[in-house]
Amino acid sequence: MRKLVLALSAAAVLLSGCTTVQKVVSGAETVYAKVQEYYRSAPKTVYAARGGYAIALAAAVQFKETQCPSVKSHSFCATLIPKLRQADAQAKVAFDAAEDFVRKNPTLDASALIDAATKAALAFAQIETLAGIKPASGK
Amino acid sequence: MTAALAFITKASAILVAGVNTLEAASKIGGMIQNVLATGNPTDEMWDNLKAFEDEQRARLNAPMEGEN
To answer: For residues A126 and A6, what is the distance between their CA atoms, to the nearest angstrom?
Structure first.
């Protein structure tokens, strides 16, 4: 969860032009502590993490539909979109496993599954960040 | 919405500041807020989140023009 928050905030930093990375990291760590405090239950943690992932997925869809309506829209479309699809498929598997476990066992420790889902979401977010996915108005 | 959720959803929305993402952030943020306000997520809450995710996934997987 912490790495996911950091990855998402790092992506925001890149796009916002903010140079105070240390402030962002400190802010993200504060957010992570608050998230841990609020989501003491494994089901809530998985739900919130999956919700955050759904937002990142929506961002990828926005990018694909505006920047890559055609495989020839940009030179990167032919390779980047398949990468996002593959990473999304892996994230789906990880989140499905975590969700299935916590729904059946809401009081048991799900740390390993949560970590796996967070790692998969992080990998997806990093593709977006490294690709420099930007608002449609700024290429 | 808690400061934590606001930060996460805003950071995510900034990734691509399109209508789709902002609407998604608002919608998902509301879903998460409901979970906070109640107990563990209900079956309906899980189904709603899954439906949204499945819709986005279908759009991501839809072939681009000229793609095999």
So the answer is: 11
- Structure token digits, residue A129: 């960040």
Q: Residue B39: which of A49, A128, A106, A72 has the closest Cα?
A: A106
DSSP state of B64: P
| φ and ψ of A8, to 5 deg | -65, -40
Cβ distance of B56 and A57 shorter than 8 Å: yes
CA angle A29, B17, A134 (to 5 degrees): 85
- pLDDT tens-digit readout, A120-135: 998 998 887 777 654 3
Intra-chain end-to-end CA distance of chain B, in Å: 43
Query: Using an 8 Å Cβ cutoff, are B46 and A47 in contact?
Result: yes
Residues of B in contact with A31 (CB under 8 A): 3-4, 7-8
Is this model's pTM higher than 0.80 or not? no
| Interface with chain A: mutation pick from B9, B16, B26, highest number of A CBs within 10 Å | B16
Q: What is the pLDDT of residues A15-69, one digit of tens each?
A: 444 444 555 555 555 555 555 555 678 898 899 889 889 988 998 999 999 999 9
Global ipTM: 0.71
